[in-house]
Design goal:
The structure holds two protein chains of two kinds. Chain A contains seven helices and ten strands. In chain A, the strands form two sheets. Chain A has a five-stranded mixed sheet with strand order 3-2-1-5-8. A five-stranded mixed sheet of chain A has the order 4-10-9-6-7. The longest helix of chain A is centred in the first third of the chain and has 34 residues. By secondary structure, chain B is mainly alpha-helical. In chain B, helix 5 runs parallel beside helix 8, helix 13 packs antiparallel against helix 15 and helix 18 runs antiparallel to helix 19. The relative contact order of chain B is 0.10. Classes of the chains: A alpha+beta, B mainly alpha. At the A-B interface, helix 3, helix 4, strand 7 and strand 9 of A face helix 6, helix 9, helix 12, helix 13 and helix 14 of B.
């Protein structure tokens, strides 16, 4: 492009103007095709958040599609700017003004049409995805638009509190664990809620992000497709130890999950009895039996309140 | 519209204000910053006492043994004391006592550096006050950013305690987001808009000055939050957390609320100024793009900031009077706060973007030596952004579980807003076509703005798509995105504006070599800082954390080092600014950029009153390359022409370029002020109306 530009600079005022449009269009075409091919086939399979679960694959696909659309747009603007800066610079000693061009109706109409078409296409694409499983990884509130049909999904309740996520499994007696354990290949229905402030349950490899609001049952769906570890982080600033509110979940085989769930249910049975019965939301001001017992023993936690700064307890 | 009706001797710039004593008093007895501080201290003590008296009987915070009421009332009384000490209420009280408001002399007599420390009613003084103050706020908040990056050098070793870190994050975010709303509208808008539209003054000088003097109060209140333990909820202040947090939250809510009031006042003044104070012939089709952007920004401020003030008021009452607007178990809703906040918060993002669009659109025709391409498209783009920005706020809540059926709508509006935003690129690219580009420092910064905002805007489209947003929301991706639009857009445009207009505002040329060094370091290190953060966010690092995955340490260290160098680049600017304006003081040429803008047709810095006579605008500001174009304005129209101007524009117009007439009675009714040389009434209707100030 630079060499072309140099040639363009050499043409005198009397000579015929080179076709600037063509000189911008051709490099743009080449760059766009190459960039889109690279994004789609080379970079795409490695784009975050990976393909460990259905929702994650869908998000990876969306990011790939957006990148494929964004690359030519970005390339067009940058190539145009670069061309303009090289070719349409002020020459030494030239103090005259450029042509008095106030506008160009067809160029403006084309621009508006093209951007509108891109935007409406993106909107149609996104709306379609929201009505299918594609968008089910995002928190959908108590009445989700889409839910998996057929076999009953595994229900997992995620309870956020400062500064820890705990998980209840209502299909296994409602035991509450600090360990997130999921079976491979089965739809998971997350019910995310909070006991104190707003948190956000972000299971990165699962492609799930759902805010944990006090008093709200926020659902999200995903289906793990590979075995492995899942990073869980809080994605909404929730106070002092927000940065340390993280844990690691596991996706295991269905058989391993069944045995883990059964054994944990049995092991925690005595604790589960003291918990409030399983519900979609909880009112932390109603102190459950276990808290009463702890308070009696002099063991008090944050109780959903903000820790005083002088008393930070590492969770 | 009874304006400009004071006796001639009070028509000095500012028209006489509270600081203007008839008999010269010693400086320490005249209202200025020091009396303001005294008033604030006295006010705080009184308010705190009152709060202790009222609130001693009940406990507010769950784990504390005292109430927020003394803090809140102390802050409120301190702000009132600060304003009273500055003399904001003096004129009001004088008028209520039946004495004439302000005395002769005004600030022309005060003069010198001292007037910048007073409650001045001259829009040019307020502009300079805003400029210096905004740079101080920006650098203070920037130092907090340096501290954040210092902590993030290591995922496990900590420089700050977690509480100190979260305070720093909150201070950085809040200070930047609340105070930088006025970073262009305050200094450049207040200073330049009257000059650009051919007015001798702004519509409401007292409101304008008050809007400025609220910003140091907001800044001080926000910083004082550190003394109260800071606030652990960032700049968003999501509700259950902000209700439960310690006293620092009071400083957050009051500072943000004060800044909201400042925004409303500043916006209101500029709206009326632009609509009603345009010179004859300054039709809507000749309004400079910067004035268009200021008009759009001012409308956003006036319409969005009241929601913020309401939200902050609810936080304060939740914390003090134990209302329960945001407590779910007592009938409130934490979603209410999120809605209120983002109903302000998203228009605010465009409050931060539009002034930048205005500056770059104003600058590129000058340095391309071509008319602005698609003037109407550019103006329509700004108005389209303004309108649409009120309909996108729930895209911040895509994952929050609020009303999932509404997500397609907010996805649509969010994506639609990229169309009018894209117009600024259409306009720039059309203007570049066959231009003669001069790469001076302001143009470099404008080009940097286009580059950065392109990345910021494109990444914003990623965020509008719900599935993609599920990965990106709340991560460093979002943080990189809005730093690209705000720092890469707004602050680069601000720098372009400062390098471009400082010769006008101070009559002083900034050092161009240092300016180029400043641009290249800032451009390179800005991108080196924030471009990797997109990847960091995509790789799973949430915002506002102090611990992150070990595998991300290398890239975080790169970003931190680059951020320090970016800070060094800002230091180069500060050195350049101080050295050029205080030490070197190289006089600038009258019109160093050969601009056609009306503001450049008067001497630099502009004389008191801006124009000897109200000019008659003859053509648009971007008519470069058109030898037939008339000069932008007739600065000394014969009085007779103006008196009878409405009917017969021909005399004022040496050229037939505008056959409809330069004076456009339909387009600028309020601006058709026949004001040949001073005390004449602005409009016939006002003539019969006795001036309340003169009579009082």
């Amino acid at each position: 492009m630079t060499s072309q530009a140099g040639a363009g600079a050499g043409t005198g005022a009397g000579r015929r103007e080179p076709s600037h449009a063509l000189r911008i269009f051709l490099p743009w075409l080449v760059v766009s095709v190459v960039a889109d091919w690279l994004i789609w086939s080379v970079w795409g399979p490695h784009l975050p958040p990976g393909d460990m679960a259905s929702a994650a694959s869908n998000q990876q696909f969306d990011i790939k599609v957006m990148a494929v659309i964004a690359a030519p747009v970005t390339a067009f603007v940058l190539i145009y700017f670069g061309y303009a800066l090289v070719v349409w610079r002020q020459r030494d000693g030239d103090e005259t003004d450029g042509p008095a061009l106030h506008g160009h109706a067809r160029v403006q109409a084309t621009w508006i049409t093209v951007t509108t078409v891109i935007v409406l296409a993106l909107f149609g694409f996104g709306t379609y995805e929201l009505m299918t499983a594609q968008g089910a990884g995002a928190g959908e509130g108590p009445s989700p638009i889409w839910a998996p049909a057929g076999s009953a999904p595994l229900q997992v309740q995620v309870i956020g509190q400062q500064w820890r996520f705990t998980y209840r499994y209502p299909q296994f007696g409602g035991f509450e664990s600090t360990q997130l354990m999921l079976p491979e290949g089965r739809w998971v229905e997350f019910h995310v809620t909070s006991l104190d402030v707003i948190h956000s349950f972000w299971a990165y490899q699962l492609g799930v992000k759902a805010d944990a609001n006090p008093g709200v049952d926020n659902t999200a769906f995903t289906r793990p497709t590979q075995l492995g570890q899942v990073t869980v982080r809080c994605a909404e600033l929730c106070g002092l130890w927000h940065g340390a509110m993280a844990d690691t979940g596991k996706v295991v085989t269905p058989a391993a999950f069944e045995s883990w769930a059964k054994s944990t249910q049995a092991r925690l049975a005595s604790v589960t009895r003291m918990l409030p019965p399983y519900a979609t939301t909880y009112d932390p001001t109603v102190v459950p039996a276990i808290n009463k017992a702890m308070a009696k023993a002099g063991i008090t936690g944050a109780n959903g309140y903000f820790y005083p700064p002088q008393d930070p307890v590492q969770p | 519209m009874a304006i400009e009706m004071q006796p001639a001797q009070t028509r000095e710039p500012g028209g006489g204000g509270p600081a203007a004593g008839g008999m010269p008093r010693p400086w320490w007895r005249r209202p200025a910053v020091h009396t303001g501080i005294l008033g604030a201290v006295i006010g705080y003590l009184l308010g705190h006492l009152l709060g202790n008296f009222l609130g001693s009987s009940y406990q507010q915070l769950p784990l504390s043994d005292s109430s927020d009421l003394p803090i809140v009332l102390g802050y409120v009384a301190a702000v009132i004391g600060w304003l009273a000490g500055l003399g904001v209420f003096s004129d009001l009280l004088r008028q209520m006592a039946g004495r004439p408001a302000g005395e002769a002399g005004g600030h022309a007599e005060a003069g010198g550096v001292a007037q910048y420390f007073r409650y001045s009613l001259d829009h040019k003084v307020v502009g300079i006050q805003y400029l210096v103050a905004m740079l101080v706020y920006f650098c203070t908040a920037g130092l907090f950013a340096m501290a954040i990056r210092t902590e993030l050098l290591s995922p496990v070793h900590h420089v700050f305690s977690s509480s100190a870190y979260i305070e720093i994050v909150g201070e950085h975010g809040t200070m930047m987001m609340m105070l930088m709303t006025s970073v262009i509208l305050g200094p450049l808008g207040n200073y330049l808009v009257p000059l650009m539209i051919g007015s001798k003054r702004v519509a409401f000088p007292r409101i304008e000055a008050l809007s400025f003097w609220l910003t140091p109060a907001a800044f001080g209140v926000l910083l004082s939050g550190l003394l109260l333990g800071g606030f652990p909820f960032g700049w968003t202040g999501y509700a259950p957390l902000s209700i439960e947090s310690t006293y620092g939250a009071d400083s957050y809510a009051i500072a943000f609320g004060l800044m909201g009031i400042s925004m409303i006042l500043a916006g209101f003044n500029l709206i009326v100024t632009i609509i009603c104070y345009r010179a004859p012939g300054m039709r809507w089709s000749r309004l400079p793009m910067f004035a268009w952007s200021m008009l759009a920004t001012a409308f956003l401020m006036v319409l969005a900031a009241p929601v913020l003030v309401g939200g902050m008021y609810m936080i304060i009452t939740d914390r003090t009077a134990q209302t329960a607007f945001f407590t779910d178990s007592l009938g409130g809703s934490s979603y209410l706060y999120q809605n209120l906040f983002w109903f302000f918060g998203h228009p605010e993002v465009y409050i931060l973007a539009l002034p930048g669009f205005g500056i770059v659109s104003e600058i590129i025709p000058v340095f391309c030596r071509k008319p602005l391409f698609g003037y109407k498209t550019a103006a329509a783009g700004m108005l389209g952004v303004t309108l649409l920005s009120f309909f996108v706020w729930q895209h911040h809540l895509f994952d929050s579980g609020i009303n999932p059926d509404m997500r397609p709508l907010f996805m649509l509006t969010t994506e639609l807003i990229s169309i009018p935003t894209g117009f600024i690129y259409l306009v720039a690219m059309g203007t570049f076509w066959k231009a003669k580009i001069r790469l001076s420092v302001p143009m470099l910064f404008a080009l940097g703005m286009y580059f950065n905002f392109l990345i910021g805007g494109i990444s914003g489209v990623f965020l509008s798509d719900v599935p993609a947003d599920t990965t990106e929301h709340g991560s460093f991706f979002v943080m990189a995105h809005f730093h690209y639009t705000i720092m890469g857009g707004l602050i680069f445009a601000l720098m372009a504006g400062i390098y471009y207009w400082l010769p006008k505002m101070m009559g002083i040329q900034l050092n161009q070599t240092l300016g180029k060094i400043h641009f290249w370091t800032m451009f390179i290190f800005f991108n080196a800082t924030f471009l990797p953060l997109f990847a960091v966010g995509m790789a799973g690092q949430p915002r506002r954390v102090f611990e992150y995955a070990r595998s991300l340490q290398t890239i975080n260290d790169w970003v931190s080092v680059s951020a320090f160098l970016l800070g060094g680049s800002i230091l180069i600017f500060v050195i350049n600014f101080v050295w050029s304006t205080v030490i070197a003081r190289v006089r600038a040429e009258g019109n160093p950029w050969q601009s056609r803008g009306l503001e450049w047709q008067v001497p630099s810095p502009p004389p008191p009153g801006n124009f000897a006579r109200v000019p008659v605008v003859l053509s648009g500001p971007y008519e470069y390359g058109d030898p037939a174009a008339p000069p932008v304005a007739d600065l000394a129209p014969p009085p007779g022409v103006l008196a009878g101007a409405i009917g017969d524009p021909a005399g004022a117009q040496p050229d037939s370029a505008g056959p409809a007439g330069a004076l456009s009675p339909a387009g600028a009714p309020g601006a058709a002020g026949a004001e040949p040389d001073g005390p004449a009434p602005q409009s016939p209707a006002a003539g019969a109306d006795p001036d309340p100030r003169a009579e009082a």
